[in-house]
Amino acid sequence: MRSRNPVFSRRGFSRDNGYAGFSTAPQAGGPAVATQGNPYAQPTGNPYAQNPYAQNPYAQQDLQHGAPPQAPAVPGRMTLDDVIIRTASTLGVLVVTAALAWALLPVDDANISRSYGIGIGAALLGMVLALVQSFKRKASPALILTYAAVEGVFLGVISSVVDNRIADGAAMQAVLGTMAVFAGVLVAYKAGWIRVNRRFYGFVMAAALGFILLMGVNLLFAVFGGGDGLGFRSGPLGIIFGIVGIILGACFLALDFKQVEDGLAYGAPREEAWLAAFGLTLTLVWIYLEFLRLIAIFSSSD
Fold it and tell me: Rounded CA gap, 279 and 283, in Å?
């Protein structure tokens, strides 16, 4: 059964145990046996196939010769190209709307209040859209792309504020930092240096929950008490929590890669590629914002 938490569920391809097959170690294009750890290879637990051996190309085996299963292309099954195209589309929409917001919503003294208000409104709307998609049973491409567009407006405004009023070049530095983290986690994951299992999953979920609750308390103190709240997002503590936030974002990237890999191995339906794009976009936005905040803190302390 899928988790419905938009931040922590990393919604993807698990159907029964919620861990996307973490109890097994399937590889894309390799064998995937019909065991309890394979959510797509159970006669009762696989909602996409009545016969796991007839429908799941990764569960077919030459029982007479003991040959390893093959991975033929099957219409309607998710492929890596599907994930790449959907993710590129989602991020492309986000980048375009961010650029338009940067250009059309000036942050000079005369307009910053209006622009900042639009940015905050876009952030709240993006949160609502993310929640709606997270509670839906199926991916909605229109909803995901709308979320990306709205989130892009928020990122464009906040990036323009930091870049033009706090630290020149901050947006590009944050983009480069996000790309570096993505590339680093991908290399580490493919090399086997990061092992995503139940223990890793549980640790990341607990750490992220504590992090977000702490930041929420800090925000409440800032709203009702003024200033920087408890100081968790500014000064030396802000730097520490910013680094922690980036590390957590990197851990979520590893979870995203694992779910994509399991979805490919277990023959997830093609529409699940939109959920992969949605999860990756959420994670990359998180990492980018943490980098942007860190850059702003370092520039303010100079």
Answer: 6
Question: Could you tell me how many residues make up the chain?
Answer: 302
For residue 150 the two structure tokens come to: 């709205």
Cβ neighbours of 95 (radius 10 Å): 15
C-alpha to C-alpha distance for 201 and 298, rounded to whole angstroms: 32
- What is the phi-psi region of residue 29: left when phi exceeds 0, alpha when psi lies from -120 to 50, beta otherwise? left
CB 272 within 8 A of CB 263: yes
pLDDT digits (tens, 9 = 90+) for 214-240: 888 878 877 776 667 677 677 788 899
The type of residue at 84 is I
Q: Which amino acid is at 219?
A: L
DSSP β-bridge partners for residue 62: 67
Contacts of 92 (CB under 8 A, 6+ apart): none
Q: To the nearest 10°, report the CA torsion of 19, 199, 262, 257.
A: 110
Question: Each residue of 234-270: pLDDT tens digit?
Answer: 778 889 989 999 999 999 999 999 999 999 998 899 9
Domain residue extents for the chain: 78-298
Return all residues near 238 (Cβ < 8 A) that are at least 6 apart: 231, 232, 293, 294, 297
Residues 164, 292: contact at Cβ < 8 Å?
no
